[in-house]
Write a structure and sequence with these properties.
The chain has 279 residues and is of the alpha/beta class. The chain has a domain of 152 residues: P-loop containing nucleotide triphosphate hydrolases (Rossmann fold). The chain is 29% helix and 24% strand. The protein has 9 helices and 11 strands. A hairpin with a 5-residue loop joins strand 10 and strand 11. The longest helix is centred in the C-terminal third of the chain and has 16 residues. The termini are far apart.
Protein backbone atom coordinates (compact mmCIF):
# COMPACT_ATOMS: atom_id res chain seq x y z
CA UNK A 1 0.00 0.00 0.00
CA UNK A 2 1.14 3.53 -0.73
CA UNK A 3 2.11 5.35 2.45
CA UNK A 4 0.40 8.56 3.47
CA UNK A 5 3.64 9.71 5.04
CA UNK A 6 3.93 12.68 2.68
CA UNK A 7 1.07 14.30 4.62
CA UNK A 8 2.04 15.41 8.15
CA UNK A 9 0.05 13.53 10.78
CA UNK A 10 1.95 14.45 13.95
CA UNK A 11 -1.35 15.10 15.70
CA UNK A 12 -2.74 11.79 16.98
CA UNK A 13 -6.31 13.07 17.16
CA UNK A 14 -8.05 11.35 14.28
CA UNK A 15 -11.30 13.18 14.98
CA UNK A 16 -12.03 16.06 17.33
CA UNK A 17 -15.55 17.48 17.58
CA UNK A 18 -16.47 20.28 19.98
CA UNK A 19 -19.88 21.92 20.39
CA UNK A 20 -21.09 20.29 17.18
CA UNK A 21 -24.77 20.56 16.31
CA UNK A 22 -26.58 19.90 13.03
CA UNK A 23 -30.17 20.87 12.29
CA UNK A 24 -32.58 20.31 9.42
CA UNK A 25 -34.26 23.24 7.74
CA UNK A 26 -37.36 22.28 9.65
CA UNK A 27 -35.50 23.08 12.85
CA UNK A 28 -35.17 19.48 14.02
CA UNK A 29 -31.81 18.74 15.62
CA UNK A 30 -29.91 15.77 14.15
CA UNK A 31 -26.86 16.30 16.36
CA UNK A 32 -26.82 18.46 19.46
CA UNK A 33 -23.75 19.68 21.39
CA UNK A 34 -21.54 16.72 20.49
CA UNK A 35 -18.04 16.61 21.97
CA UNK A 36 -16.02 13.65 20.74
CA UNK A 37 -12.29 13.00 20.36
CA UNK A 38 -10.93 9.79 18.86
CA UNK A 39 -7.17 9.25 18.85
CA UNK A 40 -5.00 6.87 16.90
CA UNK A 41 -5.22 3.48 18.55
CA UNK A 42 -8.71 4.12 19.90
CA UNK A 43 -10.56 1.21 18.33
CA UNK A 44 -13.96 2.84 18.57
CA UNK A 45 -17.52 1.70 18.01
CA UNK A 46 -20.20 4.35 17.54
CA UNK A 47 -23.40 2.57 18.48
CA UNK A 48 -26.97 3.75 18.26
CA UNK A 49 -30.34 3.08 16.64
CA UNK A 50 -31.38 4.36 13.24
CA UNK A 51 -31.95 8.09 13.40
CA UNK A 52 -29.52 8.66 16.26
CA UNK A 53 -27.16 10.80 14.16
CA UNK A 54 -24.50 8.25 13.17
CA UNK A 55 -24.66 8.89 9.42
CA UNK A 56 -24.71 12.65 10.00
CA UNK A 57 -21.34 12.30 11.71
CA UNK A 58 -19.97 10.70 8.55
CA UNK A 59 -21.28 13.55 6.39
CA UNK A 60 -19.58 16.05 8.69
CA UNK A 61 -16.26 14.29 8.25
CA UNK A 62 -16.71 14.24 4.47
CA UNK A 63 -17.46 17.99 4.50
CA UNK A 64 -20.84 17.28 2.93
CA UNK A 65 -22.50 19.31 5.69
CA UNK A 66 -21.30 21.89 8.19
CA UNK A 67 -22.20 22.27 11.86
CA UNK A 68 -24.68 24.85 13.08
CA UNK A 69 -23.07 28.19 13.93
CA UNK A 70 -24.00 29.52 17.36
CA UNK A 71 -23.27 33.14 18.26
CA UNK A 72 -21.93 32.34 21.74
CA UNK A 73 -19.62 29.41 21.01
CA UNK A 74 -17.57 27.94 18.21
CA UNK A 75 -18.32 24.58 16.64
CA UNK A 76 -15.12 22.71 15.79
CA UNK A 77 -14.65 19.77 13.44
CA UNK A 78 -11.00 18.79 13.23
CA UNK A 79 -9.38 15.79 11.57
CA UNK A 80 -5.77 15.11 12.52
CA UNK A 81 -5.63 18.52 14.13
CA UNK A 82 -6.83 20.53 11.14
CA UNK A 83 -10.25 22.02 10.43
CA UNK A 84 -9.63 22.48 6.70
CA UNK A 85 -8.58 19.77 4.29
CA UNK A 86 -8.47 19.17 0.61
CA UNK A 87 -10.87 16.23 0.37
CA UNK A 88 -8.46 14.25 -1.82
CA UNK A 89 -5.68 14.65 0.78
CA UNK A 90 -8.08 13.72 3.55
CA UNK A 91 -8.83 10.39 1.89
CA UNK A 92 -5.17 9.46 2.41
CA UNK A 93 -5.58 9.89 6.16
CA UNK A 94 -9.01 8.49 6.91
CA UNK A 95 -10.64 5.98 4.59
CA UNK A 96 -14.42 6.22 4.78
CA UNK A 97 -16.72 3.53 3.41
CA UNK A 98 -20.45 4.09 3.90
CA UNK A 99 -23.76 3.14 2.31
CA UNK A 100 -23.24 6.17 0.04
CA UNK A 101 -20.11 4.46 -1.31
CA UNK A 102 -22.16 1.39 -2.16
CA UNK A 103 -24.75 3.59 -3.84
CA UNK A 104 -22.15 5.27 -6.04
CA UNK A 105 -20.96 1.93 -7.34
CA UNK A 106 -24.47 0.59 -7.79
CA UNK A 107 -25.27 3.47 -10.13
CA UNK A 108 -22.09 3.43 -12.20
CA UNK A 109 -18.88 1.46 -12.41
CA UNK A 110 -20.40 -1.97 -11.79
CA UNK A 111 -18.85 -3.40 -14.95
CA UNK A 112 -15.31 -2.61 -13.77
CA UNK A 113 -13.25 -5.46 -12.41
CA UNK A 114 -12.20 -5.56 -8.78
CA UNK A 115 -8.61 -4.42 -9.27
CA UNK A 116 -9.63 -1.45 -11.41
CA UNK A 117 -12.18 -0.44 -8.79
CA UNK A 118 -9.50 -0.38 -6.09
CA UNK A 119 -7.02 1.51 -8.30
CA UNK A 120 -9.71 4.07 -9.07
CA UNK A 121 -9.56 5.15 -5.43
CA UNK A 122 -6.30 6.96 -6.19
CA UNK A 123 -8.24 9.17 -8.62
CA UNK A 124 -11.51 9.43 -6.67
CA UNK A 125 -13.32 8.03 -9.70
CA UNK A 126 -15.68 5.13 -10.29
CA UNK A 127 -13.50 2.92 -12.44
CA UNK A 128 -10.50 3.78 -14.60
CA UNK A 129 -10.37 6.00 -17.66
CA UNK A 130 -7.87 6.56 -20.45
CA UNK A 131 -6.68 9.97 -19.23
CA UNK A 132 -5.62 8.64 -15.81
CA UNK A 133 -1.96 7.79 -15.31
CA UNK A 134 -1.92 4.50 -13.45
CA UNK A 135 1.50 3.59 -12.07
CA UNK A 136 2.95 0.28 -11.02
CA UNK A 137 2.89 1.59 -7.45
CA UNK A 138 -0.89 2.11 -7.72
CA UNK A 139 -1.35 -1.45 -8.95
CA UNK A 140 0.91 -2.99 -6.31
CA UNK A 141 -0.80 -1.06 -3.51
CA UNK A 142 -4.22 -2.09 -4.81
CA UNK A 143 -3.27 -5.76 -5.00
CA UNK A 144 -1.90 -5.59 -1.46
CA UNK A 145 -5.13 -4.00 -0.22
CA UNK A 146 -7.21 -6.70 -1.88
CA UNK A 147 -5.06 -9.35 -0.22
CA UNK A 148 -5.44 -7.61 3.15
CA UNK A 149 -9.21 -7.78 2.67
CA UNK A 150 -8.93 -11.45 1.64
CA UNK A 151 -10.24 -10.48 -1.78
CA UNK A 152 -7.25 -11.12 -4.01
CA UNK A 153 -9.32 -13.61 -5.99
CA UNK A 154 -11.67 -10.79 -7.01
CA UNK A 155 -9.07 -8.83 -8.98
CA UNK A 156 -10.39 -9.86 -12.38
CA UNK A 157 -14.04 -10.27 -11.45
CA UNK A 158 -16.48 -7.50 -12.50
CA UNK A 159 -18.41 -5.88 -9.69
CA UNK A 160 -21.73 -6.72 -11.30
CA UNK A 161 -20.88 -10.43 -10.95
CA UNK A 162 -19.94 -10.16 -7.26
CA UNK A 163 -22.05 -10.80 -4.21
CA UNK A 164 -22.82 -7.91 -1.85
CA UNK A 165 -20.16 -9.17 0.54
CA UNK A 166 -17.55 -9.33 -2.21
CA UNK A 167 -18.33 -5.79 -3.37
CA UNK A 168 -18.03 -4.57 0.22
CA UNK A 169 -14.57 -6.11 0.56
CA UNK A 170 -13.45 -4.49 -2.69
CA UNK A 171 -14.72 -1.07 -1.63
CA UNK A 172 -12.96 -1.30 1.74
CA UNK A 173 -9.80 -2.34 -0.12
CA UNK A 174 -10.26 0.77 -2.29
CA UNK A 175 -10.04 2.93 0.83
CA UNK A 176 -7.27 0.81 2.34
CA UNK A 177 -4.99 1.02 -0.73
CA UNK A 178 -4.09 4.63 0.11
CA UNK A 179 -2.82 3.32 3.48
CA UNK A 180 -4.73 5.78 5.67
CA UNK A 181 -3.84 5.68 9.39
CA UNK A 182 -7.56 5.25 10.16
CA UNK A 183 -10.60 3.64 8.61
CA UNK A 184 -14.20 4.66 9.27
CA UNK A 185 -16.74 2.04 8.25
CA UNK A 186 -20.42 2.95 8.42
CA UNK A 187 -22.64 -0.15 8.80
CA UNK A 188 -20.20 -2.40 6.86
CA UNK A 189 -22.34 -5.54 7.23
CA UNK A 190 -25.55 -4.02 5.85
CA UNK A 191 -27.09 -6.39 3.31
CA UNK A 192 -24.80 -9.29 4.21
CA UNK A 193 -25.98 -12.70 5.32
CA UNK A 194 -24.79 -13.94 8.75
CA UNK A 195 -21.88 -15.96 7.36
CA UNK A 196 -20.64 -13.12 5.13
CA UNK A 197 -20.94 -10.73 8.08
CA UNK A 198 -18.91 -13.01 10.34
CA UNK A 199 -16.22 -13.40 7.69
CA UNK A 200 -15.98 -9.65 7.11
CA UNK A 201 -15.68 -8.98 10.85
CA UNK A 202 -12.92 -11.58 11.03
CA UNK A 203 -11.02 -9.73 8.31
CA UNK A 204 -11.49 -6.40 10.10
CA UNK A 205 -10.14 -7.95 13.30
CA UNK A 206 -6.92 -8.77 11.46
CA UNK A 207 -6.62 -5.18 10.21
CA UNK A 208 -6.98 -3.86 13.75
CA UNK A 209 -4.44 -6.35 15.11
CA UNK A 210 -2.05 -5.16 12.38
CA UNK A 211 -2.27 -1.62 13.76
CA UNK A 212 -4.99 0.10 11.73
CA UNK A 213 -7.21 2.44 13.74
CA UNK A 214 -10.84 1.56 13.11
CA UNK A 215 -13.99 3.57 13.76
CA UNK A 216 -16.95 1.24 13.35
CA UNK A 217 -20.46 2.68 13.10
CA UNK A 218 -23.22 0.17 13.76
CA UNK A 219 -26.48 -0.51 15.54
CA UNK A 220 -25.60 -4.17 16.16
CA UNK A 221 -24.01 -4.99 19.52
CA UNK A 222 -23.06 -8.40 18.12
CA UNK A 223 -20.62 -6.71 15.70
CA UNK A 224 -18.43 -5.32 18.49
CA UNK A 225 -15.49 -7.69 18.22
CA UNK A 226 -12.93 -8.17 21.02
CA UNK A 227 -10.27 -5.85 19.57
CA UNK A 228 -12.61 -2.85 19.74
CA UNK A 229 -11.88 -1.18 23.08
CA UNK A 230 -14.15 1.87 23.20
CA UNK A 231 -17.87 2.42 22.67
CA UNK A 232 -19.71 5.70 22.07
CA UNK A 233 -23.48 5.51 22.52
CA UNK A 234 -25.59 7.94 20.48
CA UNK A 235 -29.23 8.70 21.20
CA UNK A 236 -31.27 11.45 19.57
CA UNK A 237 -28.15 13.16 18.25
CA UNK A 238 -26.35 13.29 21.60
CA UNK A 239 -23.56 11.27 23.19
CA UNK A 240 -25.19 9.30 26.00
CA UNK A 241 -22.13 7.29 27.08
CA UNK A 242 -18.48 7.16 26.00
CA UNK A 243 -15.78 4.94 27.43
CA UNK A 244 -14.31 1.43 27.68
CA UNK A 245 -16.77 -1.07 26.28
CA UNK A 246 -16.86 -3.08 29.50
CA UNK A 247 -18.27 -0.04 31.31
CA UNK A 248 -20.50 1.28 28.52
CA UNK A 249 -22.14 -1.94 27.33
CA UNK A 250 -24.57 -2.32 30.21
CA UNK A 251 -28.19 -3.37 30.05
CA UNK A 252 -29.37 -0.07 31.51
CA UNK A 253 -27.37 2.08 29.09
CA UNK A 254 -28.45 0.14 26.02
CA UNK A 255 -32.06 0.07 27.18
CA UNK A 256 -31.89 3.88 27.24
CA UNK A 257 -30.24 4.05 23.83
CA UNK A 258 -32.67 1.72 22.08
CA UNK A 259 -35.75 2.88 23.97
CA UNK A 260 -36.80 -0.44 25.45
CA UNK A 261 -35.79 -3.14 27.90
CA UNK A 262 -32.79 -5.13 26.67
CA UNK A 263 -30.19 -7.32 28.31
CA UNK A 264 -26.52 -7.28 27.33
CA UNK A 265 -24.58 -10.49 27.77
CA UNK A 266 -20.79 -10.83 27.48
CA UNK A 267 -19.78 -14.02 25.67
CA UNK A 268 -16.76 -16.21 26.36
CA UNK A 269 -15.25 -15.40 22.96
CA UNK A 270 -15.12 -11.68 23.75
CA UNK A 271 -18.24 -10.72 21.79
CA UNK A 272 -21.50 -9.41 23.22
CA UNK A 273 -25.09 -10.43 22.68
CA UNK A 274 -28.21 -8.34 23.01
CA UNK A 275 -31.48 -9.90 24.14
CA UNK A 276 -34.86 -8.21 24.14
CA UNK A 277 -36.29 -7.92 27.65
CA UNK A 278 -34.84 -8.11 31.12
CA UNK A 279 -32.96 -11.16 32.32
Amino acid sequence: MISSGSIPVENDEVISLQNVSVALRSGKWILRDVDLTIRRGDQTVILGPNGSGKSTLVKLLLYQIRPYRFLDREAIVRIFGRDRWDVFELRKLIGIVSPDTDQLFSERGRAHRGLDTVVSGFFASRGLFANQKVTEAHIEASRAALLAMEAGHLSEKPLDEMSTGEVRRVLIARALALDPPALLLDEPTTGLDPLASARLLSTLRRLVRAGKTLILITHHVEEIFPEMNRVVLLRDGQVLEDGPKEKVLTSSALSSVFGGAVTVEAQRDGFYRLRIGRS
